[in-house]
User: What shape does this take?
Amino acid sequence: MNPHAVEYPARLRDAFGTRTVTGLHRLADNPLFGDAALTELLDRMPRERLYAFSTGTDPERVEDNRLAVHVGVSGAQLLQAVRRGRLWLNATRVDLADPRYRDLIRELYVELAAQIPGFVPESSQGTLLISSPRALVYYHADGPASVLWHVRGRKRVWVYPALHAGYMQRELLEDIFAGVRHEYLPYARDYDDGAQIFDLAPGQWIAWPQNAPHRVTNLDGVNVSLSTEYFTAASRRRFQIYVANRFLRTRLGLSGLSAREDGAMAVAKTLLQRSARRLGLNPLSFRQHAPVLRVAADAPAGVLPLTAGDAGAAHD
Ligand SMILES: [Fe+2]
Assistant: This one.
């Protein structure tokens, strides 16, 4: 009853969620991550849930991270562009696109939770990451808690302290939870002094504390990873508190609010924010990246500049 051979390190029994943990799995043998399955998924999934970025080489230059449209580009061509360029494909919500990925993600959490006392994921979802050798993911933090299952290629991951003002201002996390800002965060090289560095090979998973800032550099090979997000009672509470604090800060001018996730004040803030949203008092405008490139499998970098005449230029 452990088909994916998920292994949690027993000596870190109590560390899940509070420290960065790595363990093992057997997804590298799973045909869902082979080129044939990936091609089929990319051809079939709703393209508005697929994001392609061409990345730079310097983690301090997030402006080199450029969104590329992929209208009319087949799954096979997308993979070819990944092999050639320095691209990062985020196939979001693969659990909705194909029940095989949905079931797989659920099974992974069943195997993981069986080895972690008190870990009760209520729901899960996943994004498949397909990326070029040497592509980057710039310094950022994600709202939901997650586990990254690494399947193909090699990558280096830097993980920075979670909920630490020296690495991310609390207001930025409020904005991330509220969905009003890109996840990318201000970054300087000297942050690396406080980072933990992990080199991931196929067959390893990694989980850092929820909201810990991180960045990634691919080493060799086309990289394929499954990023799975999970939701627990605790992770939902954190989401509600940060969104409520943002509401109170931006609408009522209250600053320096507690980020405590339990207690009567936490409940009161959450209820207030929910009522405000229902009454339309907390409208949130969602920011989108603007595409400046298009994926072109035959181009040396796998992308070309987007011009006004390109089909899909107005896509986003
Ligand atoms: Fe991330």
In short: Helices lie at 35-44, 75-84, 94-97, 99-113, 170-178, 233-252, 264-278. Residues 140, 142, 214 surround fe (ii) ion (CB under 6 Å).
